[in-house]
């Protein structure tokens, strides 16, 4: 089972999900996405894996930076949101776990544990 964790080590939820994956003894590729931002193409793939239609659904919309950048305005294109995440990766919701071709945002972390259990059965 291929597992990727989009991880931000300063985030307690992200650390909790990393611990859950470790406890499940899964081999995990960890991407520190703040230090190694995703490209727009990678973000588009991740959107498909999450099953979402708009990049805003995988962004930290309550973060002050979101409003500072004017991302709370109506009528912005998907490309503008994707561009903002490539330039300011801290805006990406965290953590995100990808297992195979499916992804899930790990909030709350227990949702990842339930997901792993469901996949294992």
From TrEMBL:
<dbReference type="Pfam" id="PF03960">
    <property type="entry name" value="ArsC"/>
</dbReference>
<dbReference type="InterPro" id="IPR036249">
    <property type="entry name" value="Thioredoxin-like_sf"/>
</dbReference>
<keyword id="KW-0560">Oxidoreductase</keyword>
<dbReference type="InterPro" id="IPR006660">
    <property type="entry name" value="Arsenate_reductase-like"/>
</dbReference>
<dbReference type="GO" id="GO:0008794">
    <property type="term" value="F:arsenate reductase (glutaredoxin) activity"/>
</dbReference>
<comment type="similarity">
    <text>Belongs to the ArsC family.</text>
</comment>
<dbReference type="InterPro" id="IPR006659">
    <property type="entry name" value="Arsenate_reductase"/>
</dbReference>
<protein>
    <recommendedName>
        <fullName>Arsenate reductase</fullName>
        <ecNumber>1.20.4.1</ecNumber>
    </recommendedName>
</protein>
């Amino acid at each position: 089972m291929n597992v990727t964790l989009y991880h931000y080590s300063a985030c307690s939820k992200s650390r909790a999900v990393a611990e859950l994956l470790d406890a499940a003894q899964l081999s995990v590729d960890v991407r520190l996405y703040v230090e190694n931002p995703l490209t727009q193409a990678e973000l588009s793939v991740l959107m498909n894996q999450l099953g979402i239609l708009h990049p805003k659904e995988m962004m930290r919309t309550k973060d002050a930076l979101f409003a500072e950048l004017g991302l709370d305005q109506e009528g912005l294109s998907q490309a503008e949101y994707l561009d903002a995440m490539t330039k300011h990766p801290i805006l990406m919701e965290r953590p995100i776990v990808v297992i195979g071709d499916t992804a899930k945002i790990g909030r709350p972390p227990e949702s990842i544990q339930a997901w792993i259990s469901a996949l294992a059965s």
